[in-house]
Amino acid sequence: MDPATQAQLTILRRQYFQLVEPTHLRWPDDKILKTFPVQSWIFDNLFDRDKIPSAPPDRYRLRILKILVSNLERAIEDPDEDEILDDLMTALSSLVSTTLPSETTAAQQKASVTYAYPVHPSDDSESGNFTVAILESRNILSSSGTTGLRTWEASLLLGSYLVTSETGRRMIEGKRVFELGAGAGMLSILCAKYLAVSGIVASDGDEVIVDMIKDNIFLNGLDTESVSHSVLRTASLKWGRSIDAVTFSEDYGMEIPDVVLGADVTYDRYAIPSLVSTLREFFQLNPALQVLIAATIRNEKTFETLQNACRRNGFSLELVEFPLVPEHLQEGPFYSITPPIQIWRITQPRQSYRDPFAL
């Protein structure tokens, strides 16, 4: 198989296991798709249940198979020369005859989603990639009404920045990291599994979500302390509550952090004062702390609330230069860039004055 075809198939596989919307999958050209080696590759890598124990949900697999077969039927001009692989038709027949859960039931179920970060662009295999498998509930809210049961776009972009940017890697490598609003835990797991942090705490204000993070830590083989990866712990932390410097190590299993991460934590303007209050607590613990906040700018006024609250507390904000990759050129992970996503670096100048009544 030529390198160009292999590259197309690799991207298709990454999209498939990330459960990208079926209409957004990037299929090879029809002339390539209908060839026997390509059909065989697609079956072996996407639909062979014997080789893929953690397959996407059946309803998703069925939708993709229907699209694939439709594409193949369109591509095949002479049935005497080309045909659809029997294994693909058997897989389709099996799914069609299976009693699938309703759309409503399926929406309530957790699904395995794999996020892939290509490390070596010239390597079309998956062995050199950073992959994080997450069990997510994409269409329901948590018990507290938050959206932490899935991974959002800003987490994926911040992960890309930490993986591919030399500045981002230097910021966290060998450092103690604390993530606020960790949600399903993808970003913390990525840092612990691949980015050589000295230790990391994934925190959330919802105990249900914290338990979900623990499940995902186990899923990624990080449930035990090992020299092969960084120590990752979980913690419940509600924004706005005081943080005790004396008991910090006992409470969170890590010394005072060097870096705080937050992704998609600015969607609710009414929660921003509590978020900034927590940042202030961390700066009091470590004035040299660096904070990275990734935010999808859905509402300019909401994000201005964060900026204004930070400035009132004497924090310095700097927009991180990290260009968004157009969706049709993304190689993983895959995410919408509409509305736009930004990454901000927040620090505290040494001589800044912090008004304790700013919030």
Structure, described:
The chain is α/β, with parallel strands linked by helices. The chain has two domains: 3-106, no CATH class; 110-347, Rossmann fold (3-Layer(aba) Sandwich), CATH 3.40.50.150. The protein contains 13 helices and nine strands. The protein has helices at 3-17, 30-33, 36-47, 58-75, 86-97, 103-108, 153-164, 166-172, 186-194, 207-219, 248-252, 272-285, 300-312, and strands spanning 111-117, 130-136, 176-180, 199-204, 231-236, 259-263, 290-296, 316-319, 341-347. The strands form two sheets. It has a seven-stranded mixed sheet, sandwiched between helices. The longest helix has 18 residues, at 58-75. Residues 141-145 and 355-359 have low confidence and may be disordered.
What is this structure, in a nutshell?
By secondary structure, the chain is of the alpha/beta class. It has 2 domains: 3-106, no CATH class; 110-347, Vaccinia Virus protein VP39 (Rossmann fold, 3-Layer(aba) Sandwich), CATH 3.40.50. The chain is built from 13 helices and 9 strands.
The overall average pLDDT, rounded, is 90
| Amount of helix | 25-40%
Number of helices: 13
Structural class by helix and strand composition: alpha/beta
CATH class type of the largest domain: Alpha Beta
CATH homologous superfamily identity of the largest domain: Vaccinia Virus protein VP39
